[in-house]
Design a protein that fits this description.
The structure is a single chain. This protein is an all-alpha fold and 312 residues long. Helix 11 packs antiparallel against helix 15. It starts with a helix and ends in a 7-residue tail after the last helix.
Length: 312
């Protein structure tokens, strides 16, 4: 009993010492915790708008309950079904074309022996991540304009074109995906290069002793070592498979390509904000969030079944 009491007293003393040493860190956590609580969790109570006939003058509490009326309205609305199809199509293309790009670029940069060139290249490809889609869409419109755009003028000198990059459906989708890859590829490359930096150099030496060439070291050492990072980022991307940015499709779209450019986020803005159908768009947003969570949980479970750690 005395030994147990002594251990309990010792744990209590250690806990007090720990709190005295780290109380400022916990104090610093109060601000971000308050931010997430006030601006992320408290507003989630208003999700009940999706199940009510919301009246902006009556407020959330006094608006009448209508059950799943707005969900039924969404699934029978051709505009929503079109936006759902476009969101899935563009996000799947983004995943298939955009996800491998930073992995490949990181592997190529890692093989460069001249460190100065490597650092300059990293900086250049990293910069577009900090540009807003407003700026990028303005640049794209100037570059790809069918009449006086720089790209089409150059193609005209070569006897090709003009090509309607942003005025026909196929060209718009291709340009949309290419601009997304260009903007975010540098950010992903930095993450993978950081993971590659943590690889034990002795693994490369052992592979070289076993007769592996450069490609063999990439395939048998580099890729397996960064596989956990690839899996985590893949899971996070799959969790956003039904999510969609607003500024990217909204700024690049035009009336000629709305059949492929109208996604859930732009529909929510058009129907909910401009037309005032708050309950309908709340139902659409709730459906979108639930599907994203399902994809995230499924991808994480699948990763664990294959022996990876997953996100949690």
């Amino acid at each position: 009993m005395e030994i147990q009491k002594g251990l309990a007293d010792r744990k209590r003393i250690d806990r007090i010492i720990y709190i005295k040493r780290t109380w400022m860190l916990y104090l610093m956590l109060l601000l971000p915790m308050a931010f997430f609580l006030i601006f992320r969790y408290v507003p989630m109570a208003n999700i009940v708008i999706a199940f009510k006939d919301y009246n902006i003058f009556a407020g959330v509490g006094k608006s009448p309950w209508v059950g799943f009326k707005w969900f039924a309205a969404a699934f029978t609305d051709p505009g929503f079904l079109l936006a759902l199809r476009n969101t899935l199509m563009l996000n799947v293309l983004d995943l298939l074309c955009g996800f491998p790009a930073p992995v490949i670029l990181a592997l190529l940069l890692n093989e460069l022996s001249y460190k100065g060139y490597k650092k300059v290249t990293q900086t250049i490809i990293y910069l577009p991540h900090f540009l807003s889609w407003i700026i990028i869409s303005g640049i794209a419109i100037q570059l790809f304009a069918p009449g006086d755009g720089v790209v089409n003028l150059a193609l005209g000198k070569l006897g090709v074109g003009p090509i309607d990059f942003l005025m026909n459906k196929g060209g718009w989708v291709g340009t949309y995906i290419a601009l997304g890859i260009w903007k975010e590829m540098g950010w992903g490359t930095i993450i993978y290069l950081a993971a590659i930096t943590g690889i034990n150099p002795e693994l490369y030496e052992a592979a070289e002793v076993d007769g592996a060439n450069r490609w063999g070291k990439i395939w048998h050492v580099t890729l397996p070592s960064i596989r956990p990072t690839i899996i985590v980022l893949l899971i996070m991307n799959l969790g956003r498979i039904l999510g969609s940015e607003f500024d990217r499709p909204y700024t690049l779209a035009n009336p000629l390509v709305m059949q492929v450019a109208d996604v859930i986020s732009t529909m929510v803005y058009r129907v909910g904000i401009r037309n005032g159908q708050f309950s309908l768009t709340a139902a659409i947003g709730l459906f979108q969030s639930v599907v994203c969570v399902i994809f995230l949980l499924a991808a994480n479970s699948l990763a664990k079944k294959f022996g990876e750690r997953g996100v949690w």
